[in-house]
Amino acid sequence: MGQLMRAVGHDLRNKLAVLKNSLYYLNMRLGQGDEKVQKHLQIMGREIANADGIIADLMDFALAKEPALQKTDVKAIVAEALSQASLPGHWEATIRLEDGLPLIMAEAGQLQRAFTNIILRVIEAVPEGGKLQIAAREQGGFVEIEFRAAGLIIPEENLAETFDPLLSTGGTNLGMAVSKRLVEGHGGTIEVRSLAGEGTAFTVRLPLRSNGSGDLAD
What we know:
By secondary structure, the protein is an alpha+beta fold. The protein contains five helices and seven strands, in the order ααβαββαββαββ. The chain folds into two domains: 2-63; 70-207, Heat Shock Protein 90 (2-Layer Sandwich). Helices cover 46% and strands 22% of the residues. The strands form two sheets. A five-stranded mixed beta sheet has the order 2-4-5-7-6. A two-stranded antiparallel sheet has the order 1-3. Mean pLDDT is 81; it is low at 210-214.
């Protein structure tokens, strides 16, 4: 399955690259013209990016690549994840990162993808917008990163499906399944809790001690 997904993903990404180049040309020729044209060019760009993200999720889920661990700054990963998620204007993000947060042993690209998927899950679930609070702190040998969305409530009976790649309601939930796999590949955990009046919080815990080497990421 992993080999198949690698081959299919490669072919599909080649097709998307052609579409990206064509869209770039159209933006150069038409992007400053009619507002409706601009709107549809933006829609095309967004959907190409979404398709590319789906392909990446499929490949990450099928291949289960081991992380290449090195000392990594969680603050930089959070910042890049927010940038990649591109919060819409009707969303407000607040970041509270503990001073002196230690480095961890991780592959930055994998964790950035995991965090981005969490943020995108929140955005998609609350289309009317809201407030996203991201906090990080050191806690008992772990770095704990919490993504809290005040406007998102997940019914208790649906919490168990949060990281299921195929929801019982139909469709795919690959992004969250990939996030879980990537976090657990780093020896960490991810959980979700949702309370009326408080919203929903996704909490990622990543160990300060690397798997295998025994060295602390200080």
